[in-house]
Amino acid sequence: MERDLNLSRAETFSYLNPCIRYFLFLFSFLFWVFSLCIVAIGIYATVQKAAGPVRDTFLIDPAIILIVVGVVMFFITYCGCIGALQENIHLLKTFSFSLSLVFLTQLIIAILSFFYSEQTQDALGEFVKKAIVHYHDDLDLQNVMDYIQQEFRCCGWNNYTDWSWNIYFKCNQSNPNKERCAVPLSCCTPVPRETVINPMCGFGVQTQKYLEAAQSIYTEGCADGAVTWIESHLLLVGTLALGLALPQIAGIVLSQTLVSQIQNEVN
User: Fold this and answer.
1) What is the pLDDT of residue 9?
2) Which of 72, 107, 195, 200 is the most exposed place for a label (fewest CB within 10 A)?
3) Radius of gyration of the chain from its Cα atoms, rounded to whole angstroms
4) Looking at the DSSP assignment, which residues form a beta bridge with residue 220?
5) Please, are residues 91 and 75 in contact by the beta-carbon 8 Å criterion?
6) What's the CA gap between 249 and 27, in Å, rounded?
């Protein structure tokens, strides 16, 4: 009788931990839904443009980047979601491998950016230059550039005269545009006790000397402005980096643990 009871307990014993399984499912499902939202936003932003993405800025178009990131996230989280739900080892291994690859790629990029800071700065400079050149052609790039200048309190990449790269702001006599020698409104510094920025504050500032222009706009370039911002927000930057890394590490550990439990269950 006691022998039969022990056999019965052995038969009902399972290596699978339901908490790990359902937590991984919920974890993957939430990010799966998030990926669908990212793709939807990217598609909506692309459709809403009066014209298609500018060919010269296609690879740095924020809408295209959102779609690509969303599709990659959708594939990875789908494997984790269905793999955990159906206890599918192949899908779980694909999920773990893909997540590990993404994590390692981000880590390598961060390390290379640190050791090759000049090359990284040049690459970012090319992005900003294209954003300036096509400022009026792509609404998404315009919004990104405005956000960068307002957040980092900067104007242009090297300094405010970089806006001459744009044909509308180009500072020469042959430019008939009314914005000649101007800079965007996002370059303007807020005036104390005034809630609305003067929309004309950036007009003609490219013809002014540094100290004179500094009375109405940010004159520091975004290359230096970004460094200054990061140095003064190290805790925030570290928290964001940790917040990005922890979910990926958690997904890798949970999926590997579940794969190991399933294999023990089968064997």
Assistant:
1) 41
2) 195
3) 26
4) 159
5) no
6) 12
Distance CA 161, CA 141 (A): 19
> Could you tell me if 254 and 27 are in contact, meaning their C-beta atoms sit under 8 angstroms apart?
yes
Q: Which two tokens stand for residue 114?
A: 């640190």
Amino acid letter, 218: Y
3-class DSSP state of 117: helix
Which residues touch 243 (CB under 8 Å, ≥6 apart)?
none
Start-to-end C-alpha separation, the chain: 27
If one counts every other C-beta atom within 10 angstroms of the C-beta of residue 95, the result is: 30
Residue type, 217: I
Overall pTM surpassing 0.90 (yes/no): no
Q: Quick one: which H or E segment has residue 231?
A: helix 222-232
39 in Cβ contact with 71 (< 8 Å): yes
Neighbouring CB atoms inside 10 A of 188's CB total: 21
Q: Which two tokens stand for residue 49?
A: 């443009």
Locate 1 and state its tokens.
């009788």
CA distances from 8 to 16, 125, 185, 208, 212 (A): 17, 69, 76, 88, 88
* AA letter at 128: V
Phi, psi of 188 (to 5 degrees): -70, 140
Residue recorded with tokens 């038969």: 11
Burial of 106 (0-12, 13-18, 19+ CB in 10 A): middle
Residue count (the chain): 267
DSSP labels for 71-88? HHHHHHHHHHHHHHHHT-
Question: Which residue type occupies 162?
Answer: D
Q: What would the pLDDT profile of 103-140 be if each residue is shown by its tens digit?
A: 999 889 888 887 877 888 888 888 888 889 888 888 88
